[in-house]
Design brief:
17 strands, 345 residues, homotrimer, globular, alpha+beta
Chain lengths: 345, 345, 345
């Protein structure tokens, strides 16, 4: 059974990070399309269909000539709008020679892309977590690929009760007996929040914050399904930082489906304490890499075990937020398909 | 062309050996289902669907807690009947949370499993060769995987005229000019028997028995398609052992389809002479491994050459038993499908 | 999307080279069939379906016994006409036991094969370039596999405007501003020719001919789509060889589809100068290997980028010959399918 695509096209997704997009050509599979990304001399990011209009060679195998992209097969040359502006073997360019160009918006560290119906990009907007641009935070991140459907990853992010089983030695101990989630829904988002009874920190939490391992602290977690493209969440420890605020850890998972069972993931984390100490980032980063690796391992095993079906299974209270996210996506898909706003290929 | 499954579900198959099933979790693909196998503290073997009822994580990636199986994702916990008995994140277990449990019967060295319609397992019975429990025999074995349909393997086992071509240096020389097979059929089994004119032994037969390489001996072969799950056979050399009986070699091939072109194979061999001499087992075992390897190599080449079709080809007298086995399986399949006894998934 | 086969069966294709076909058995995939090739003691080449009529074992895994081919599974033995002439396990051969035999014509260095409707092979004929049998030429060649549809390769060969982009450092510099092609078509072939204004040679052309790198020479290129099986072409430099003729380079690409996106390629090149100097061949051969490797790399990227579709794309003047070749093949296919001359399998 080959699973059907279950991601809306009419949504801003994250195509890559500001750091990685530059003057070299990047090929990336996004929503089952091949896209080539690069940055113009002005700094603006360009995203084109990665398939020459002439004989379908990947444009990402070609080269930049100023702001023009030259195909590596016969030299067909494209501008940032996807129009072919030069065919070396003849004087004129054939009528209609162009490739799709996709609208891009950059909000560092993210490069957003619109792969839905052209002209509808204004109906929705990229979302930018405040801790990515406010002062008082320092961030780090990584990226990778998970061979699983994007909704399996969203569900996993929207319920941390897996943590004591998947990351037994690094999960905060208070997660072992969690109070119920408080879930808030809007038409297009789901948020959950949970305040734990005072409890110990895990070893790495203590190491990262400099707080005591043998004392109890108030802790709380929260998370939001912002859109099919983004999950953001946080963890707070009720002890003052050097600036007097509580310790806040924030992170985001950008999920961009490559296809029905394959998702490109970019994650970024930030903290509001010890922001000028790289040693703390170096301490925390490998733990977050490990979170990603275990999540990837679990979700790929789930996907492989589904045999291509979209089997749902029994649900429990802890799934409340994940189930609501599924409903939101199903509604987006139904609207999109009803309105037939698919971009013609 | 993707081949259709041609194995009856309503049949006892061999899931594994008594030796390998213990307190660790084994995942095995049986009749296109993923099954997790383990042994309870009491020694009883448990076989469950290897897919958590909650979010489809493989239970074989989890761990045992006494006789309970704890999922490695969110900790859903199952008893030997497949019922979920604990969900760590909440107080009650959702109604209907369970995975399929499969009936198991152990007759060492085999662990049998029933994957057909529940409640119909009594209509058939596992078969136990007498030489596996009678005194006066010693046995050894191995297992492996053949990427071929189970019926190709049965056909191969039910006709030894391939031996001089596939194993020219180890096939008994009397096989070069075989008398016709005597074939006996019942409604559900096929047996063949052939007594050769007196002839020489092959080098390894002489080495294994201590008999003379330059003398002629009466020899006979026999084999039985017991069920889609099992072939048993034997070879006799008409010379007395230390106990006065003729030399008898017996062996069994357990065939458990993993899918239409993939079969798990467990083989076991036994002899009635030199039963207390491990050196003779060490001498014979590598030859039997070599038989398995060549059989595997030939049958995988046949399967690959079928291009997914179930092309039959011209048959000859030596195929009589194999063809009858095919008819028996076809009848079992027709009955099963007519009666719609498929286990709901 | 699984692409449909778009090669006519009713056409002589090249199965292999005279050098490689001998007394060992070669298995080759040709037009989606498995064929075993060998040479009889008399020297005649035999091509049979590579699948025993009995149980489908590949005959290429067997062995030759004189001019007979013995299957490696049960010893079924075939003559050069594909008739089974011996079944070791019984006295008579079953009626109708045979495999397909394919008509072969050898014109060194090529072994041609007819895989179309039997009896129609006389309607077309293999084509033999004159420079392969005339005096005054010396040749060399190679072979390989390109995972692309044969028409993508034909198109690539029928238009050299890719050369400055794909082989920038080895393409003749005159190709950078090519005059228009002159294209000549017949019902079943397409030829193109182009004479360049006088210009420099590339470094390797000068090295191979001993001509000056800093002088201008008249140069011309030509090429012909002879049939779906063969492209031949040439390059001339208007300066006299030691024999007084102009320097002529000729080459041929034999394309034999293995399947819809996989083509076996045999190429051969020849020159009319320095024919007795192996050092010149050693100098030129690696450049031609490099041409093949880059062509392979480009065409496999194109094929992969088509996602299984036969997307055509925008065409330009330089595609005139390639488009005509596509029409010829489409006409051949339509005639063949209309007349239902497919060989029954």
């Amino acid at each position: 059974v080959s699973p059907e695509a279950n991601y809306p096209l009419g949504c801003w997704y994250i195509a890559g990070t500001s750091d990685e997009v530059g003057r070299q050509l990047i090929r990336r599979r996004l929503l089952d399309r091949d896209v080539v990304l690069f940055r113009q001399a002005s700094g603006a990011v360009v995203a084109l269909e990665d398939r020459c209009a002439h004989r379908s060679f990947p444009l990402s195998h070609g080269r930049l000539e100023g702001d023009l992209l030259v195909c590596g097969y016969h030299g067909f040359t494209y501008d940032a709008a996807g129009s072919c502006v030069r065919v070396p073997s003849q004087d004129h360019v054939p009528y209609g020679a162009r490739v799709d160009a996709f609208e891009v918006r950059e909000q560092p560290p993210f490069v957003w892309i619109w792969l839905g119906a052209p002209g509808e990009s204004g109906r929705r907007a990229p979302y930018h977590p405040s801790w990515l641009h406010e002062e008082g935070w320092t961030s780090w991140g990584g990226q990778g690929h998970i061979d699983a459907n994007h909704l399996l990853i969203h569900e996993d992010l929207l319920d941390l009760t897996a943590a004591p089983f998947v990351y037994p030695e690094i999960a905060p101990p208070v997660l072992l007996s969690p109070p119920p989630l408080e879930v808030e829904v809007t038409e297009t988002s789901v948020s959950y929040h949970r305040t734990f009874p005072s409890g110990r920190l895990s070893g790495w939490q203590a190491g990262a914050t400099g707080l005591a391992e043998d004392q109890d602290y108030e802790q709380s977690e929260s998370g939001t399904f912002v859109s099919p493209a983004l999950w953001v969440g946080g963890w707070e420890v009720g002890a003052p930082t050097e600036h007097g605020d509580v310790h806040r850890l924030a992170w985001a998972y950008a999920l961009t489906p490559a296809g029905p069972t394959s998702t490109h993931v970019i994650w970024i984390a930030a903290r509001n304490w010890a922001t000028a100490q790289p040693a703390i980032t170096e301490y925390m980063a490998p733990r977050f890499e490990e979170f990603f690796r275990r999540r990837k391992s679990v979700l790929e095993a789930v996907q492989a075990n589904l045999d291509g079906s979209d089997r749902r299974g029994v649900s429990v209270s802890a799934d409340a937020a994940g189930l609501r996210a599924r409903e939101i996506v199903a509604t987006m898909l139904a609207q999109e398909r009803g309105r037939a706003v698919l971009r013609p290929r």
